[in-house]
Amino acid sequence: MKKILLSLFFGMMSLSAGEIKIAVAANVSYAIDDLKKEFNALYPETKVQVTLGSSGKLTAQIKNGAPYQLFMAANMKYPEALYKDGIAVTRPLVYAQGSLAYLSSKPQDFTKGIALIKDATINKIAIANPKTAPYGKAAVEAMKNGGVLADVEKKFVFAESISQTVSYAVTAADIGFIAKSSLYSPKMAHYKEGVNWSDVDTKLYTPINQGIVVLKNGEKSNEVAAFYTFMLSAKAKEILQAYGYLVP
Questions:
Q1: What is the CATH classification number for the domain harbouring 82?
Q2: Do 7 and 85 have their domain in common?
Q3: In 3-state terms, what secondary structure has residue 183?
Q4: Are residue 192 and residue 215 in the same domain, yes or no?
Q5: Which residues contact 19 (CB under 8 A, 6 or more apart)?
Q6: Contact in structure between 209 and 75 (CB atoms under 8 Å)
Q7: Can you list the alpha helix ranges (DSSP code H) found in the chain?
Q8: Does one domain contain both 11 and 91?
Q9: 3-state secondary structure of 128
């Protein structure tokens, strides 16, 4: 991280009114409103404009000139690529660690573990597109390591983001692999742990380290620097933990 930029981030005392544009991985959609609310309690004059999407698609937009100033990705791969290309100006740091959960609108026997998805009653399995969504990639990894991938691939219903996967899991599919963080939305309260959802064994997939970077468009913005600093603060970590994330 550049020393000048670091000094800017941690030396700021005040901000002028302004707007910042942030690209945010879809799995953070459930926590982002509370994060924005807490940030605006500190900086009420700064408007935070959020664009949600899969990390792969957001990265493609950024490379094609989208005017985002900060990127909160669902894993480290994409921000690391942007940093290598000089499009991100800060080295990627982990702001949260995500985990997978199963979700079904119908009661399921989760004591079976990942073998559950082989059941004849499970005809469709919703997962995020593993080519663009880190949670989809993690789901495939979990199924492969759990020894069930070859048996269930034909059941896949692909979604373009983890938020769309949640919708598919309870409508177009019998079960889905979702970001655990999505279960903390008030709209999900009627789904019960052990009945409609359960954690996917974390030993079956690589931990999902979610990375944050400042992009070139935001390098000279005090407002962007403030939000970046906030996202690495104890208060932001407290909010993220409340939404089911692990934090560094």
A1: 3.40.190.10
A2: yes
A3: helix
A4: no
A5: 46, 47, 48, 49, 223
A6: yes
A7: 3-11, 32-42, 55-63, 77-84, 134-145, 149-152, 162-170, 222-231, 234-242
A8: yes
A9: strand
Cα dihedral 118→120→121→123 (10° resolution): 70
Residue 29 DSSP symbol: G
Residue 195: which pLDDT band, with cuts at 50, 70 and 90? very high
Q: Which residues pair with 25 in a beta bridge?
A: 53
Per-residue pLDDT for 144 more than 60?
yes
CA separation for the pair 68, 4 (Å, rounded): 21
- Is residue 176 domain-shared with residue 188, that is, in the same domain? yes
Is the same domain home to 33 and 91? Answer: yes
Contacts for 80 with CB less than 8 Å, ≥ 6 apart: 92, 211
Distance (Å, whole) CA 171 – CA 19: 37
- Cα-based angle 168, 170, 171 (whole degrees, multiple of 5): 65
What is residue 56's three-state secondary structure? helix
- Tell me, rounded to whole angstroms, the distance of Cα 156 from its chain centroid: 21
Average pLDDT, integer, range 47-69: 95
- Tokens, residue 223: 């407002």
Domains in the chain, number: 2
**76-127, pLDDT tens digit by residue?**
999 999 999 999 999 999 999 999 999 999 999 999 999 999 999 999 999 9
Q: Which domain holds residue 107?
A: 100-204
Q: Give the C-alpha separation, 131 to 77, whole Å.
A: 12
In tens, the pLDDT along 150-169 reads 999 999 999 988 789 999 99
> Which single residue is written with the structure tokens 């935001």?
218
